[in-house]
Amino acid sequence: MALGIQVFGIVFGAFMLYMTFLQWKKKEFTFNEWAFWSLFALAFSAVSLFPQVLDPVIAVLELGRKLDLFIILGFMFLIAAIFYTYKVVRTTQKKLEELVRRTALERAQQHDLFSKKVNQKTQLKK
Question: Which of 49, 69, 74, 124 has the fewest CB atoms nearer than 10 Å to its CB?
């Protein structure tokens, strides 16, 4: 059973390496982003292959199982990722609101100028 989980972990790590490489080649990841996610995938694969590396960490944290550590780390990662995503969305939303506000003001000013020119032309014709 443990061998199946190890193989699955290594396959997942290889898949993550491949995906991060594709994103880097498409210029959607910077080199630093690619390096971070590649190291993360390699570390995940290494821990999957050699789970006994975590024994000292499990002993210090007084956790019952190695899986408990991964569950805790997974929740911490998800919370951090959600917080970061929320921050990026809020920043983008504020920038979009400012852009829409500026565009609306510019269009209103252009409309006012156009209306004034039309009124001037109609008054000249009279």
Answer: 124
